[in-house]
Amino acid sequence: MPFDAREFRLQILSSLVEAGSEEYKENVRINSLLEDKAQKTAGLAGIFLAAALAFIKVDTLSVWPFNRLRILLPLALVIVLLVGCIGFCLAVMWLRAIPGRPTFESLNKLKSDLWPIALGDLDAYEEGYWGDRSVLWQAVTTEQSTLIKSKAHRLLIAQVILALAMIFVALLLLFLIVPIISSHL
Fold first, then answer.
1. pTM given for the model
2. 3-state DSSP call for residue 103?
3. Are 159 and 42 in contact (CB under 8 A)?
4. How many angstroms separate the first and last alpha carbons of the chain?
5. CB 77 within 8 A of CB 49
6. How many CB atoms lie within 10 A of CB 171?
7. In whole angstroms, what separates CA 111 from the centre of its chain?
8. What is the DSSP string of 29-58?
9. What pLDDT does 176 receive?
10. Which of 46, 47, 54, 50 is nearest to 86 (CA)?
11. Domain range summary for the chain, segments of one domain joined by +
12. Can you tell me the distance from the alpha carbon of 182 to that of 166, in angstroms, rounded to the nearest whole number?
């Protein structure tokens, strides 16, 4: 079976278009996962924020066996961290829409470029057509990847901030519980 270089080149270009389509689908899935994680992270931060705000009551602060300022300063830090976490999560969800697949207009432009060519001469333009389609997919997937990296970075920051806030809440609770337990012993 003789090697047909033109057919091989067309197969490569067709594979690029197919790979672009598959990468687009995967990027859309990843984007949805990132936004879902951002929503869950913001929800968890909201729960911790509500819990932190529940501590700020004059009655509650007056029964604690040590200085209120030692409680309020870490509590204020926790609240700032949680609000920051929610802000980063909102930035992930509101950043911008993920780019869509190549538009009908761009594909129609490719068609209109080929339409005036005589049927016998189309073989010479077939590689260009598939090459142009692969370039369209590459532009879309590159833009998607940039957006996804930005969202993933912001989500990572939000999760680190949430983890810090949770650690501060845990330490604050430990500092509150230890004097109470030792006074009962």
1. 0.74
2. coil
3. no
4. 91
5. no
6. 12
7. 35
8. HHHHHHHHHHHHHHHHHHHHHHHHHHH--H
9. 72
10. 46
11. 27-179
12. 24
In angstroms, the CA 105 to CA 132 distance is: 13
Question: What is the spatial distance between Cα 63 and Cα 174, in angstroms, rounded to a whole number?
Answer: 16
Q: What is the pLDDT of residues 18-36, one digit of tens each?
A: 888 899 899 999 999 999 9
Position 1 confidence tier, pLDDT thresholds 50, 70, 90? low
Report d(CA 175, CA 145) in Å as an integer. Answer: 45
96-104 LR contacts (CB < 8 Å, sep 24+): 96/147, 98/27, 98/28, 98/31, 98/144, 98/147, 98/148, 99/140, 99/143, 99/144, 99/147, 100/140, 101/21, 101/24, 101/137, 101/140, 102/133, 102/136, 102/137, 102/140
Token representation of residue 62: 């007056």
pLDDT (tens digit per residue) in 112-145: 766 666 556 666 677 777 788 888 888 889 999 9
Cβ-Cβ contacts under 8 Å for 52 (sequence gap 6 or more): 75, 78, 79, 82, 169
Q: Cα–Cα distance between 185 and 172 in angstroms, integer?
A: 21
Contact between residue 78 and residue 171 where contact means Cβ atoms under 8 Å apart: no
d(CA 104, CA 93): 27
Backbone φ, ψ for residue 66 (5° rounding): -135, 175
